[in-house]
Amino acid sequence: MASKGGDENFARRDLLLSLQDLAQKKWEDAKVFEVDAPPEGEEHPKYFGNFPYPYMNGLLHLGHAFTLSKLEFATAFHRLTGKKTLFPQGFHCTGMPIKACADKLDRELTLYGCPPVFPTEEAEPEPAAEAAPADPKDPTKFSGKKSKAQAKKGPGTTQYDILKQSGIPEEEIPNFRDTSYWLRYFPSKAMRDIKLMGCGVDWRRSFITTDVNPYYDSFVRWQFEMLKEKGLVVKDKRYAIYSPLDGQPCADHDRSTGEGVQPQEYTLVKMKALELSGKLAELEGKGTVFLLAATLRPETMYGQTNCWALPEGTYGAYRGLNNEIYIMAERSALNLSFQDLTPETGKPERLMTVTGQDLMGVPLSAPNAVHERIYVLPLLTILMNKGTGIVTSVPSDSPDDYTALMDLKNKPKLREKFGIKDEWVMPFEVIPIIDIPEFGNTAAVKVCTDLKIKSQNETAKLTEAKALVYLKGFTDGVMVVGPHSGKKVNEVKPVIKTEMIEAGQALLYSEPEKTVMSRSGDECVVALTDQWYLLYGSEEWAKQTEKCLNGLNCYFSECLNGFKHTLGWLNQWACSRSFGLGTRLPWDPQFLVESLSDSTIYMAFYTVAHFLQAGDIYGEGNGPVKAEDVTNEVWNYVLQDGPLPADSPIPRDTLAAMKREFTYWYPWDLRVSGKDLIQNHLTFSLYNHTAFFPEERWPKSVRCNGHLLLNSEKMSKQTGNFKTLNQAVFEYSADAVRFAMANAGDGMDDANFEHNVANAGILSITRELAWIEESLATESSLRDEEPTSFTDRAFDNAMNSCAAVAFENYNGLMFREAFKSSFYDLIRARDICRFSCGPEGMNRRLITKYVDLFTRINAPIIPHTCEHLWANVLKREGSVLTAGWPTAPLPDPTVAMASDYIEGVIPAFRKTIAKAEAPPKAKKGQPAGPPPPKVTGATVYIADRFVG
Question: How many domains would you assign to the chain?
Answer without folding.
Answer: 2
